[in-house]
Every structure is written in C-alpha cells, then in structure tokens.
User: Which sequence fits this backbone?
C-alpha cells in the first residue's frame, strides 16, 4: 500500500508521464509500474484497511447535534477513555463516570455530597439485628433498558453474581476485568470471606441483605457506583460481552462506544427518577443525547472547551482556571473528597519526637503554599480528612505559621541544624497538582528554621513502593476518598494495621493504641452518636500527635459553557448528567 | 534487522521504571494483589523466557494482548491504522505540494531574496516544536477565528459508516458529503502540524539536488540546444533531481506511518501514535512492543519499496 502514496505524491511533479528511457528488455515501463502500483496498491490499501475497519462507524458524536452548546447534545470532555462498561468489574474512574449514567444502585449519594439517599430502593433502610441485616424496599414498575423487569430477583441475581465465585456469571468485564475488585474491597472478599452472607427475596419488591458482622459504612458502600444493578436478562444472554453492551436502569441508555474517542448515550425516557425532585437525585434526563469524549492532552481539552466543541470539561489544572474564566466560560469546583499531606516517618529520629513534628507543622507557611499551588482549587487542610466527610471536626485549626516558635521547639528537642530528606511524587495527583513545587516551597520554609531537607523523588510506581516500605523521612502523599466515610480516610491512612513493613498506606508509621481503639469503635458501631464521638476525638488526638503536616483539600475544577446549567459536581467524581440542561443557541 | 529491533524494544521497555501491575491496580492495592496480577501477566518469569514466548507468538502474527485493554495488540493496531494512514497521506501531501515547488524555485533563483526567505522558512520549519505549532494553529484557527474544527476526525453530530476506516473515502462511498467536508476540515490543522518538518526537509533536499543537477553537462546542452527554460527545469533537471527527494519522502512516510505521537495526542487523533502515548503512560508492555515493531516493520517496508522504485526511476541502478 505504500508505493501508492509515493506514486501519488510523485505524479503531480510529472515524472511518470511519457517516459522514453524504458528499454525493450524491460517488461514493464516505468509508467506502467507507476500506474499499476498506484491503482493496484490503492486497491490493496482499501481492501486491507477494510478488513480492519469494517462494520462500525467513525464518529465525532451523534447525529443531529451540531456543535456543543447548540442542539440538545451534552458533550463532556475528559482525559482518558473508559476501560470497560461493566461497573462491578472496574476500578477505573473514567469507566465509572460512564456507568454512572447507565446504571442505578439501590442507594446513591445525594447531589454534591456523600450523604446516602435512596435510588432503586424507596428509602434508606435502618439497620436491624444490631447492623447485621438491612431490608430494602424496592421501587415498583422500574424497567431495565432491555425491557426486563427490575425486582427483588434482579437484586439478588446481581449480589449473587458479585459474591459467589462459583456463580456461572461471576465473570465478564472484558479483557481488563478487575474481577469484582470493588466487591472484595468494600465487602472483604468472596464466598466465606464476604461481609454479606446472602440476599433473601422477601417478596417481589423487598430484599433483605444479611451481614456476617456489623459494618458501619455498609450503606455508603452499597451507594457506590460499582454496585449498579445490571439487567439479569442481558447478563444471562451474554455475560462476556456485557462490558461493551451495558444495560441498567439509569437515566441514560448506552448507544455506542468508539474506542479512544467517544461514548454515546441517549436519554432513557422511562427513567423512574424523572418524577423525583432534583435535590433527591432525580428529575430529567433533560438533555436527550450525551457524548463523552476523551481528549488526553490537557491543553487540547481546554482549547476544545474554549472553542465551543465541548459543553463541559474535566481535569482543568489550577492554572487553567483564570484563563477559562477569562474566555467567558464558567468554572465550578467539586466539593473536596481528597487530602494531600506531608507524612513524617515516626519510626525515624528525630520524627519519633512529637515536638519535632509539631515544630515542622509550625515551620511551613501552608496558606502561602496552598495559595500559590492550588489557587482557587484548594483550601488549607486543618484535620486529617476532608470536610465533606461526616464527623469532620470543625473546631480544629491548622497549626499557625510561626518560624520562631518552630526554631525554638527544634532547639528544645535537640534537633537544630537537622539534616533530613523530603520526598515528592513525580506526577500531578488529584490531591496535589505540583508535588515538586510544593516540596521546594516547603524546603525553603524548613531552611528558615534550620532544617536542611534534601529533595528526593522516584518514578510513581517506585515512589509508592519505597514510601510503602518506609525508606523516607518525610514524604508527600495524599488520598482520594472512595465512599466518603471517615473510616476510609483515618483507618486506611493512620490505623496501625496499615503501617505494614512493605506496602504501608500509613506511611507515617503512626501507631497509637488509643486512636486505633477509637477507629475500631467508629467502624464497628452503627450508632451515629457513638461514631461521631469516636471520630471527633480521633481527629483531635491525631492533630496533637502530628504525624502529618496536612496540606490541602483539593477542589477539582470543571469548566462549562455558559449555556450549561444544573451540573451537580459530586465529591466522589462521578455524577449522573440527568439534571444537566442546555439553553439553546449559546 | 527486525529481530534486532524486537530484542532492543523488548528489553528496553522492561527497563522503564515502574511496574505495570502496580500502575494497573493503583495506590490502594496490596502486595498480594500486585503479585497475583504480575503472575497473570507472565511478568514473574525470567526476561529471557518472556522474550522466547513473545518471539514465538510474534512470528505467528500474534503480538499478545494489551495489558490494559486485554484485546489483541494486532486488533488494536489495525483499528487505529486507518486514522494514521489518512493523516500521514495528508501531511505528506502538504509537504510535497509545498516543498517541491518551493525547493525548485529557490534553486532556480539561487541567492535571490526568495531563496533566502525560503531558507529561513525551512530552517524555522525544521526547528519548530510540533506541539507548539499545533497549539498555535488550534488557538488561531479554532479558538479565535473558528474556521477549522477540532478535535478528532469529525465534529459532534457527524458519523460515517466505516468501510475502509478512512473518513474521506468512506464518506464519499456512502455519499455523505457533509461528513466529507467536515472530515477534510478536521485534517487541515494536524496535517500542517505534522507536515511542516517533512516539508522543510523536502524543500531543502529538492533545492540542493536541483542545484547540483542544474550544473550538469546535459542541462547546459539542453540549454544550448535552445530548449525553453521551464522545459529544461522540469523535464531535464527536476526529474533527475528527484531521486534524493524520493528517498527523503520515503523515509518521512515510513516515520509518520509509525504514528505521530505528539500530533495525534494534541489533536485527539485516534491513531497509532495516540496508542503509543497511552501505552507508555500505562506501561502496557505488549502494546509498546507492538507499536514499535509495527513502526519498524513499516519503515523497513517503505524503504524497500523506495529502493525498488529507484530501479524503475533510474535505470542505472539496475546494472
């Protein structure tokens, strides 16, 4: 196929015409050769390519749309394509962003918060038997996109598929299936390990979920988007193909998926949520067609938004915010569900001394750092979890910036002229847009109080590995919440069980039996008052012990055309588009 | 030679720091999960064994499955190839249509202001970072003027039934003229961004080779015979001067066909280059190997074809 191009390119210059040098001994003249190669190979090219491209469509989006903002297509730009569209078989945020539109769970998170509200269930159930069982009343008359009936059997079918590793449908998700990772993550494992022991069908529209033991964040877990209820009919028909032909009950129906480029959805006109008030997660779907488009390059995505090709774009950097606003577009921020922090390795001297850790907290001018590196996209962190998480302790304040006091404290602790190291991650993370810049600023602040911190970094995978084995003295890291429960932050990041020798999540290696007990208490009771007390107190103890310097709660920005309204940015990063509307012609 | 490439790629890819299993599972994975995934991927075996398996499969046309998507690498590459082919053809069209005539003119009018101007232009073209040029084009023609569409191959609202995978060909075959026009407009900016360097190279090569040929005896003879000047230039000189230019064009086509990573990434062009970018980011070993081997194979093939073309263009080569 290649000489085709060469010959074609050649032709306009006039080499191929009426050549006289061709000798008699040569069977084929140059002209013939060029003509042959041109025609024949062009044909071959087409055939060859047809073999691979045949069948599908190449699309920039759906028919009848026109550009973004006009017509009735909501075009959402994002940084990467989905991996699979079977929600339970992925952990990838860009996959869940799409499945969130197509599937509903029994419960979901209220708009712009992490409060649990009913979805396919009619109400959030109360714990029974000391939190060992929950009875869900289900909505009646709900249909999957393939026409199948949603009922108690469908719920049981899904939970059984997830839990039972011998279930014939405990498979699927495509080549890169995560093998029900979120199920094991939130419910401890399959079969005998699973926190959920079984689902009983009480009647056609009632199910009872039985638990092995009390799990305080149970309802929050059920509300997570991986636990969207899939059509049993579709799964039974083709479980291995379900990941590219997803069928749920959600506000949008799946239409098509052009790999590497767009996912197309259309409104589910019979959505059960249409009559539910907007604040309760319902209404709409107002926009009839949705195109979710991946544009990996950040600058290109912002340009596509500015030029009007996108209705909305995710993944803006803090630097983009002012310029996007200047272009006459809207910027909204997700409520923060992340925390970035500087962890001090308490196993290593002098950070085993609480006064040194407090001194470091005093030494860093966090207001200046957050202002410089986060701009409007972050707020200074005061405690060890973000404010969208329940039982956030409002009364705690960040250690005041006071270099003199810090110097004095270090001197008293015998740690003046301290030589140490400060690690930073090599790539931007949702909770830390510029690890290197922040590390450099901290290094300057620390120098002021007589601490010489050498900056260290590794490639990201290696960075996690080495900080997870405690090679660092101080290291930057952060966390994005999974379900908005305090347990997800505090227990994972500061419980002594996570301070393992090799793959620690608790990279401060902070171990305090008192805190552990409080965290255990918060995890194992369903009594809200008791939980509140435990977590409030745990936060106070943590801030006093200061294993971290908390940095910021990042509020990831989203850009919108002026014509877009009703977008409910969720702290979890995945929101349904049912409330979005477009004012015409903008 | 391809064997050499395969060895180098195979072991170099594995020398990139970062564990694909760790990247796949993310920050919250346990050591046991990572080990499990590594075993599933076959990454726990010694490197030489991994290479043996890879080579045996590759010879059967099986480049393995992508670590990230789980689909066969060859399928993924074939699905992306038409987009890259279309872009390459257009970029080369830009390069040749501009490069050759300008090269000829600057050779004929050597040392004129036009020649000096084009020399500066060529130098600028070669030294211009593609990503910068691409962004400038986007800002001017898409954001500010709104003349050209961006990103991707078609605007929202257009779809083409895929027959060959080439938007322009398919839209004509299905008589979808609005899509043809839209697709054509989408091609302009990436083709210019991608074609600028080859254009400059072609321009310089044509110029120097023309200058050489213009000094040859047969050109002087032709002139002495009283052949009209344009005929001397285009018939006697240019044809003979084209050989090095063809080589350069061939080289560039081979290179571009392997996927233009930067251009495709910036323009969200769903071609081979975009796959290359994604697979390096995600440490998709199988995919990176596939992309590089495919690029190397095409490069070798194109050069082979250029050599064959030589024999046809220049009868002397055959003896």
Assistant:
């Amino acid at each position: 196929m290649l000489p085709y191009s060469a010959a074609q390119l050649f032709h306009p210059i006039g080499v191929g015409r009426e050549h006289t040098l061709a000798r008699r001994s040569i069977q084929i003249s140059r002209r013939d050769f060029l003509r042959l190669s041109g025609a024949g190979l062009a044909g071959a090219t087409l055939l060859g390519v047809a073999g691979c491209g045949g069948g599908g469509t190449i699309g920039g989006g759906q028919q009848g749309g026109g550009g973004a903002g006009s017509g009735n297509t909501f075009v959402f730009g994002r940084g990467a394509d989905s991996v699979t569209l079977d929600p339970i078989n992925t952990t990838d945020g860009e996959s869940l962003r799409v499945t969130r539109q197509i599937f509903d769970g029994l419960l979901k998170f209220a708009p712009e918060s992490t409060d649990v509200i009913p979805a396919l269930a009619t109400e959030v159930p109360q714990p029974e038997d000391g939190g060992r069982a929950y009875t869900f009343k289900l909505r009646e008359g709900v249909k999957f996109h393939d026409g199948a009936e949603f009922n108690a059997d469908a719920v049981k079918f899904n939970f059984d598929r997830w839990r039972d590793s011998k279930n014939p449908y405990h498979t699927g998700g495509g080549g890169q299936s995560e093998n029900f990772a979120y199920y094991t993550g939130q419910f401890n494992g399959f079969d005998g390990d699973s926190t959920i022991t079984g689902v009983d069908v009480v009647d056609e529209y009632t199910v009872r979920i039985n638990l092995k033991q009390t799990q305080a964040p149970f309802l929050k877990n059920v509300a997570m988007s991986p636990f969207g209820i899939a059509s049993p009919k579709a799964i039974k028909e083709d479980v291995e193909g379900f990941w590219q032909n997803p069928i749920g009950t959600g506000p949008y129906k799946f239409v098509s998926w052009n790999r590497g480029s767009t996912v197309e959805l259309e409104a589910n006109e019979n959505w059960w949520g249409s009559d539910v008030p907007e604040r309760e997660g319902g209404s709409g779907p107002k926009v009839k067609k949705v195109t979710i488009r991946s544009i990996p390059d950040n600058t290109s995505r912002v340009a596509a938004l500015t030029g009007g090709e996108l209705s909305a774009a995710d993944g803006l950097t803090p630097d983009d915010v002012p310029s996007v606003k200047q272009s006459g577009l809207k910027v909204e921020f997700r409520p923060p569900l992340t925390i970035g922090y500087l962890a001090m390795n308490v196993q290593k001297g002098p950070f085993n001394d609480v006064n040194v850790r407090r001194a470091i907290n005093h030494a860093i001018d966090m207001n200046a750092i957050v202002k410089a590196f986060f701009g409007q996209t972050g707020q200074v962190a005061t405690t060890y979890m973000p404010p969208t998480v329940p039982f956030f302790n409002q009364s705690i304040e960040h250690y005041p910036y006071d270099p003199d006091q810090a110097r004095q404290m270090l001197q008293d602790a015998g740690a003046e002229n301290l030589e140490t190291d400060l690690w930073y991650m090599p790539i931007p993370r949702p909770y830390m847009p510029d690890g290197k810049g922040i590390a450099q600023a901290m290094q300057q602040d620390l120098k002021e109080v007589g601490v010489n911190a050498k900056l260290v970094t590794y490639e990201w995978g290696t960075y996690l590995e080495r900080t997870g084995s405690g090679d660092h003295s101080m290291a930057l890291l952060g966390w994005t919440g999974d379900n908005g429960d305090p347990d997800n932050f505090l227990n994972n990041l500061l419980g002594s069980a996570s301070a393992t020798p090799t793959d620690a999540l608790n990279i401060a290696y902070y171990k305090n039996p008192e805190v552990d007990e409080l965290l255990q208490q918060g995890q194992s009771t369903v009594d809200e008052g008791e939980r509140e007390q435990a977590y409030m107190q745990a936060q106070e103890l943590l801030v006093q012990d200061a294993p971290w310097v908390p940095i910021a709660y990042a509020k990831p920005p989203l850009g919108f055309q002026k014509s877009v309204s009703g977008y409910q940015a969720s702290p979890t990063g995945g929101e349904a588009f049912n409330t979005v509307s477009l004012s015409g012609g903008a | 030679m391809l064997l050499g490439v395969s060895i180098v790629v195979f072991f170099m890819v594995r020398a990139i720091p970062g564990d694909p299993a760790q990247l796949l599972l993310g920050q919250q994975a346990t050591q046991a999960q990572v080990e499990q995934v590594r075993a599933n991927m076959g990454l726990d075996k010694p490197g030489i064994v991994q290479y043996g398996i890879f080579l045996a499969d590759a010879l059967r046309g099986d480049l393995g499955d992508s670590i990230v998507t789980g689909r066969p690498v060859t399928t993924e590459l074939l699905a992306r190839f038409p987009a890259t082919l279309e872009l390459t053809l257009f970029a080369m069209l830009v390069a040749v249509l501009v490069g050759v005539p300008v090269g000829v003119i600057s050779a004929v009018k050597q040392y004129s202001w036009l020649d000096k101007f084009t020399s500066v232009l060529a130098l600028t073209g070669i030294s211009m970072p593609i990503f910068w040029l691409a962004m400038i084009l986007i800002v001017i023609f898409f954001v500010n003027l709104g003349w050209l569409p961006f990103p991707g191959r078609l605007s929202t609202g257009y779809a083409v039934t895929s027959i060959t995978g080439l938007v322009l060909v398919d839209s004509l075959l299905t008589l979808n003229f609005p899509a043809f026009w839209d697709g054509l407009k989408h091609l302009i900016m990436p083709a210019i961004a991608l074609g600028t360097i080859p254009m400059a190279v072609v321009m310089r090569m044509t110029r120097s080779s023309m200058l050489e040929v213009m000094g040859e005896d047969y050109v002087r003879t032709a002139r002495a015979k009283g052949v009209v000047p344009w005929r001397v230039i285009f018939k006697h000189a240019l044809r003979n001067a084209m050989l090095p230019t063809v080589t350069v064009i061939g080289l560039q086509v081979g290179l571009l066909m392997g996927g233009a990573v930067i251009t495709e990434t910036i323009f969200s062009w769903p071609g081979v280059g975009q796959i290359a970018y994604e697979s390096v980011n995600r440490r998709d070993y199988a995919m990176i190997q596939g992309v590089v081997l495919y690029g190397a194979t095409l490069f070798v093939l194109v050069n082979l074809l250029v050599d064959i073309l030589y024999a046809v263009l220049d009868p002397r080569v055959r003896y």
Notes: Chain B has a mean pLDDT of 81. Chain B touches chain A through 95 residues (CB under 8 Å). The CA atoms of residues 87 and 191 of chain B lie 6 Å apart.
